[in-house]
Amino acid sequence: MPDNTLEIDRISKRYGDIVALDSVSFDVRPGELFGFVGSNGAGKTTTMRIALGVLAADSGEVRYNGHPINHETRTRIGYMPEERGLYPKMKVLDQLVYLAQLHGLSTNEAHKSAEEWILRLGLRERRGDEVQKLSLGNQQRVQLAAALVHHPTVLVLDEPFSGLDPLAVDVMSQVLREKAAEGVPVVFSSHQLDLVERLCDRVGIIRAGRMVATGTVDELTTSAATQLRVGAPHAPEGWAAQLPGVRVLSQNGSGTLLELTPEADDQAVLNAALATGPVTEFSRRRPSLTELFRSAVSDDTASPEGEARA
């Protein structure tokens, strides 16, 4: 692996009879935005806590720059937990300075960095406020500042966009792009898949503690089943349901959306549509990340052998 790559290598974690993680593996490369997505309880937060050393894995290893994560490495990681990890009665500036000093910055460096991130994240008017008196969105901004104030060389962010208004989402998106442009590996989880699709270089999908897909959005959506949008205004309900290798995803007044297996014959679909009357649209369509995610997390037949890999 290249230098400064964060590697999650076959980590597993059990709680009694419950398998939280089952040989989870992926890597986050320097300068890369990696989106880590899955349903609630899929294992995202457990993976991130193991990467930080907050939890111990039962097996497997987390490495950075080719070496196992240790205390020194952890001081170089910027971590943003999903649950607020701030001192509620502490003022914003004081808190950021304190956290920066905990990571080894001098008093002057800590103050300089804290002030820079307060300004960058639009918190100047709130710098003297207690965290508990801030809106949830501003608390989220402070939490991001806390992850960035010590100049981390890796960023691990758990639901960083949760609770943010559109303007704050734009600011945070830009900050993450900037950090990646500096060569920092950035991994974040999010349920906002449109943001993941727009921001991320690669995506990993986890389901029930197992990675079911990893790759670029293009790779994942290209490898997904072919979809056809068919406009046949006079077609009766279920007109394509019996065609071999064809699954009807939706049918309404605007047309029919079909999913085709590799063995399906699109010309047979066209002929069936023409048999119902005029065809106003017949086009291939690539599924969105949201659609791919829904398919991946709801498909009980998914297996490691069927994973997409970058």
Automatic annotation (TrEMBL):
Give one GO molecular function term.
Answer: ATP binding
Keyword S-adenosyl-L-methionine in record: no
Q: Where is the ABC transporter domain?
A: 6-233
Quote the subcellular location field of this record: Cell membrane
**Record's Gene Ontology CC terms?**
plasma membrane
Q: Which SMART domains match?
A: AAA
Per the database entry, which stretches of residues form a coiled coil? none
Annotated GO biological processes are:
response to antibiotic
Question: SUPFAM superfamilies per the record?
Answer: P-loop containing nucleoside triphosphate hydrolases
Q: Which UniProt keywords apply?
A: Antibiotic resistance, ATP-binding, Nucleotide-binding, Transport
Pfam families noted in UniProt: ABC_tran, DrrA1-3_C
Name of the protein: ABC-2 type transport system ATP-binding protein
